[in-house]
Write a structure and sequence with these properties.
2 domains, seven-stranded mixed beta sheet, 14 helices, Aldehyde Dehydrogenase, Chain A, domain 1, globular, alpha/beta
Length: about 475
């Protein structure tokens, strides 16, 4: 398959180690989820090449951490400019390998660039403190780069999840070894090329592509040189990486699974709630960790909400993401579709009712599934308890505020939650009572480079983005200076 790019040199199929493109005899296919066509055959590297990348990062970081923050900032700003200048090509490349519709891909590139711009500025704002002391000593706190950073990123946001990690790491003075998802390595390699064009010194941003995630991950976690691991992905894999990282006591950031509820109260603006639920649930075909996984609706408005919501969902246009007329693309692969289909069948067999959708779309290809709404869902069904990661919205009833809070908290996850209400007292009560790291009130578009993204409970550790986001790439050092008192 040929991806139509204004700059064809951005379609790269080799890994990037120590500023050099690394080929390999063994290669793996990256396929378009909408058509099944092979987009590229990418270098399939493993543990040995990962060790080389770590060594290159360690060597490059020695000079990088010593450079003035303003110099690091200027180079990162240049990377930001390069990303925006090639936004359309990066979006087309993303749609080809990931499947999301072009409109969403374009927005993701803008989102990805915003993290580079933000942390280019934050590089100049890594402040310390002077703690009031005694007459003969002063206590000083400084912040230093944590060390070489290992980053492991997912396929659902193949550009933004990279810049949200690499941006603060480079700004803090660290070097990075990145393992992108095998489903979507092309976006990562294009970003590395643009970083190189911007003048980011060799060895600071290494991209190791490969299908043996276990071997590459083990090399990253076992290395004493790697002092920080940042991961976005499933909770089970995150737990495994946490366990492995304990051997060398690494600093870790974990952005893991979600089971986000939307709570719609009877006093809500119903049309706004329907619009928000559609926008959240069906973004990227439901393949986002913060999308609405459970729609909890107060029983007095349940039927009205369901009717309006199902009608909006039925109007979504499904197809190849490269077609500008489509609003919903494919799932990432046939296994993902099979899981979604199984969860719908499980719900229906337990008493749920299909309000719209509920079928595979084999006429479009093996990875397409109808946008679906399930009514009369109960808390014992898989669609309530598990992260769906597909275009299926289970709608449940609740009676009062206390029951809504209990239902929202009835999960091991705690990433994002949303509520719709016009009662300002309820806004405060519910926002404080639900156990989530992020809460959207009458709004589902809650993410940006300005906010601290992250969850509680089994949804992860640490925060990404905002002025808090650079802290996970820094160590705090305390210096006690004695002999200050005048003789």
């Amino acid at each position: 398959m040929t991806v139509c790019l204004d700059d064809p040199s951005l379609l790269i199929a080799d890994s990037f180690i120590d500023g050099q493109w690394r080929s390999a005899t063994q290669r793996f296919a990256v396929c378009n989820p909408a058509t099944g066509e092979t987009v590229a055959e990418v270098a399939n590297l493993g543990a040995a090449e990962t060790r080389e990348a770590i060594a290159a990062a360690e060597q490059a970081m020695a000079g990088w951490r010593a450079r003035p923050a303003k110099e690091r900032s200027v180079l990162l700003r240049g990377w930001f400019d390069q990303i925006l200048a090639h936004q359309e090509d990066l979006a087309r490349l993303m749609t080809a390998e990931q499947g999301k519709v072009l409109a969403e891909s374009r927005l993701e590139i803008t989102y990805a660039a915003s993290f580079v711009e933000w942390f280019a500025e934050e590089a100049k704002r890594i402040y310390g403190d002077i703690i009031p002391g005694t007459a003969d000593r002063r206590s000083i706190v400084i912040k230093q780069p944590v060390g070489v950073v290992a980053a492991i990123t997912p396929w659902n946001f193949p550009s933004a999840m990279i810049t949200r990690k690499v941006g603060p790491a480079l700004a803090a003075g660290c070097a990075v070894v990145l393992k992108p998802a095998a489903e979507t390595p092309l976006s990562a390699l294009a970003l590395a090329e643009l970083a190189d064009r911007a003048g980011i010194p060799r060895g600071l941003f290494n991209v190791v592509t490969g299908t043996d995630a276990v071997a590459i991950g083990r090399e990253l976690t076992d290395s004493a040189v790697v002092r920080k691991l940042t991961f976005t992905g499933s909770t089970p894999v995150g737990k495994q990486l946490l366990s492995q990282s304990a051997e060398t006591v690494k600093k870790v950031s974990m952005e893991l699974g979600g089971n986000a509820p939307i709570l719609v109260f009877a006093d809500a603006d119903l049309d706004a709630a329907v619009q928000g639920a559609v926008a959240s649930k069906y973004r990227n075909a439901g393949q986002t960790c913060v999308c609405a996984n459970r729609l909890l609706v107060q029983d007095s408005i349940y039927d009205t909400f369901l009717e309006k919501f199902a009608a909006r969902v039925a109007a979504l246009q499904v197809g190849d993401g490269s077609d500008e007329n489509n609003t919903l693309g494919p799932l990432i692969d046939s296994r993902a579709r099979a899981k979604v289909s199984d969860m719908v069948e499980d719900a229906v067999s337990a008493g749920a009712r299909i309000a719209t959708g509920g079928e595979t779309l084999d006429c479009l290809g093996p990875n397409f599934y109808q946008p679906t709404v399930l009514a009369d869902v109960t808390a014992d069904m898989r669609v309530f308890r598990e992260e769906i990661f597909g275009p299926v919205a289970p709608v449940l009833r609740f009676h009062d505020e206390a029951e809504a809070i209990a239902m929202a908290n009835d999960t091991e996850y705690g990433l994002a939650a949303y509520l719709y209400t016009s009662d300002i007292g309820r806004v405060w009560r519910v926002s404080e009572a639900i156990e989530y790291g992020m809460v959207g009130v009458n709004e589902v578009a809650i993410t940006s480079e300005l906010i601290p993204f992250g969850g509680v409970k089994e949804s992860g550790l640490g925060r990404e983005g905002s002025h808090y986001g650079i802290d996970d790439y820094l160590d705090i050092k305390y210096i006690c200076m004695g002999g200050i008192a005048q003789a």
